[in-house]
Design goal:
With 302 residues, chain A is mainly alpha-helical. Chain A is built from twelve helices and two strands. The C terminus of chain A is likely disordered. Chain B has 324 residues and is mainly alpha-helical. The two termini of chain B are 13 Å apart. The chains are: A mainly alpha (302), B mainly alpha (324).
Chain lengths: 302, 324
């Protein structure tokens, strides 16, 4: 048995006991995901056991639960919306926080210290408490002609538009993004950049051509994290868009779960797995990136 | 260095108007980079904070609409004090925060961090990865899993695989033990925050301390108690305070799990439900805003406290390029 992360002086028996204990603690998570997978391909499930209509165990395996992919026209609309939301959020957060992070790291300007302190305060500040007044801001933004609610694809930037949801989410994610980006810029030596500035390059050119390429891993990490946050988000679209079944995948699933008729869990599980799949792929392939964000200061949801 | 010094002298030798112009120019460069972020912060943080305090002093609701509302000043706060549910919701909130924090966001996080640093490295990584999953899973899907765990036999997992084989009575467990599930659902997400921070804190303890303890004859448990725990007390304090605020204000999982039914209403959900989401379509923005303002003020105070005590100095390093 190889060594633990620390040299522990534990006997193998004790180590096995610890691993057993850890497995026990983790069991609910494993069982939950296991159920999603099993249920997705079963007519229905009794606990973790797939059963057919008469309730005979280990029967009733089917692909029927996935028929929503071609039978429900809403699914592609909400998938597209979720994708636009996630991509828009990612582009917005990365671009805006890369700009602000650069200025905070490299330029002296009045109010710099204040803005930094503010970023940190906002990072700790529980933004969900502002949902009520943001509702009023969005209603007001909706009254701006054209931009308010007449844009293609995202609908606009006001209440009950995808663009409005994106805008709110970008703002709420910004403190984390700016904080991380400034940290990335701080670590880059500034010889090349300084030389370029002396040679007469503009700040913008330096930022674009010299600095951004050097923080690619940081940008990748923030992008993945933000994309997942946007793809998963439930509360903001649920609050600011009126038609649940046509907004995003998360609200679509919620509308399936809150129907008055008995819920067909197997079918909902299939849609759930459909939403979960991209996240799981990211999770498997980019864990290290994600961990670097988490340790850099994630917002403690829940 | 000499070059920089010479430049500095040259800069200072320029006339004042020239320097003022250059300051303005560098400030306008910063302005370009800062303006999108500033705009969003103003529109979605500053204005909402002012707005929510303002709305909390009005009687605005669906009944008054956006036109016919009146200033009522502190009336909404007086209503909160006299409301029959206030005491119960306050008690719920404190219980929910304290128990979730103790058992999961700090307790479980610490247990996982300690165990996974004491077992083989790869196994430790695997367990920590699994504990990250709930946080990355869409909340709707995640809460659905827990609903199915609690569901009545023959469907629900706990009923079907634990209670039924034991011959116990089966029923939908959610309405019977609502708090157990509220705490489990939030706790399994919340534990990963502390887990990540505690693990990296434990792994960055100098190896000599840990070895020395073993050489001196500590048992692993004594080493945890007398060496590791004292050395990670700052991360412990940070996670405790930070997560207190998060738990106090987050309600998404409770909304999805119980919608505050079965006596699980907490303060933040109460504010949200009153102002933005209820079955009767009677939105009491003024009253809801007053409820939320209480949390906003707690949030501002606690955020300022963090800023003073954690990592602020490290953030405020001077920019690397000041003037050229």
């Amino acid at each position: 048995m190889d060594e633990g992360a620390l040299r522990t002086g534990l006997r193998p028996r004790q180590m096995y006991f610890l691993m057993f204990l850890m497995t026990l603690l983790t069991l609910p998570i494993v069982v939950g995901y296991l159920w999603i997978f099993i249920s997705t391909f079963s007519r229905r499930t009794h606990g973790l056991i797939p059963v057919d209509i008469e309730g005979r165990p280990f029967r009733g395996l089917t692909l029927e639960n996935w028929s929503f992919l071609w039978q429900d026209p809403n699914i592609w609309k909400v998938t597209l919306n979720s994708l636009i939301l996630a991509l828009g959020l990612t582009v917005g957060v990365v671009l805006i926080s890369a700009m602000a992070g650069y200025a905070l790291s490299r330029i002296r300007f009045p109010g710099r210290k204040g803005f930094l302190a503010l970023t940190l305060i906002l990072h700790a500040f529980p933004s969900v408490t502002l949902l009520i007044s943001i509702y009023f801001v969005l209603r007001w933004l909706a009254r701006i002609p054209v931009v308010g609610r007449g844009l293609p694809l995202i609908g606009g930037i006001g209440y009950n538009t995808l663009g409005g949801v994106i805008l709110v989410m970008v703002s709420l994610q910004l403190p984390l993004g700016i904080w991380l980006m400034k940290g990335f810029f701080d670590q880059i030596p500034w010889d090349v950049e300084r030389a370029a500035l002396i040679d007469g390059a503009s700040r913008f050119l330096v930022w674009r051509k010299i600095l951004l390429p050097q923080i690619k891993p940081g940008i990748a990490a923030l992008s993945i994290f933000t994309f997942i946050a946007g793809w998963n988000e439930f509360l903001i679209p649920y609050t600011y868009m009126t038609q649940q079944e046509k907004s995003t995948i998360a609200t679509y699933i919620n509308s399936l779960l809150s129907e008055t008729a008995p819920v067909n869990y197997s079918q909902v599980a299939a849609v759930g797995l459909f939403q979960l799949l991209p996240v799981l792929l990211f999770f498997v392939f980019t864990q290290e990136y994600l961990l670097s964000i988490f340790s850099g200061g994630m917002k403690g949801g829940a | 260095m000499a070059v920089i010094e010479a430049e500095r002298v040259a800069v200072e030798a320029r006339p004042w108007w020239r320097r003022a112009w250059e300051n303005l120019r560098s400030a306008s460069g910063a302005l370009l980079f800062m303006s999108p972020a500033t705009l969003l912060v103003v529109v979605f943080f500053f204005i909402p904070v002012v707005l929510i305090i303002g709305i909390s002093m009005t009687n605005m609701s669906t009944a008054t609409g956006f036109q016919n509302w009146k200033w009522v000043y502190l009336e909404n706060y007086r209503r909160i004090l006299k409301h029959p549910n206030t005491l119960q919701v306050l008690r719920n909130t404190l219980m929910y925060v304290a128990l979730t924090l103790a058992f999961f966001n700090v307790g479980m996080a610490l247990v996982i961090a300690l165990i996974t640093t004491h077992i083989p490295r790869r196994a430790g990584l695997l367990y920590r990865a699994l504990w990250l999953l709930p946080r990355l899973t869409p909340s709707v899907v995640y809460v659905m899993m827990w609903k199915y765990m609690a569901a009545d036999a023959p469907y629900g997992i706990i009923n079907r695989h634990i209670l039924q084989p034991l011959g116990l009575a089966t029923t939908n467990l959610l309405p019977i033990y609502p708090w157990v599930f509220v705490i489990l659902v939030n706790g399994f997400i919340g534990a990963s925050f502390g887990m990540v921070i505690f693990t990296s804190a434990i792994e960055s303890i100098p190896r000599e301390y840990l070895m020395a303890a073993l050489v001196d004859g500590c048992t692993p448990w004594q080493r945890i108690r007398h060496v590791i725990l004292p050395l990670i007390r700052w991360p412990l304090l940070f996670v405790t305070t930070y997560q207190t605020l998060s738990l106090l204000t987050s309600f998404e999982q409770i909304l999805l799990l119980t919608e505050g039914q079965f006596g699980t209403m907490v303060w933040s959900l109460w504010a949200y439900e009153r102002a933005l989401s209820n079955y009767w379509g009677n939105f009491q923005w003024g009253f809801g805003a007053a409820l939320a303002t209480v949390l906003v003020l707690i949030g501002i105070v606690m955020a300022v406290v963090y800023m003073r005590y954690f990592q602020f100095e490290a953030l405020i390093q001077e920019p690397k390029i000041e003037t050229l």
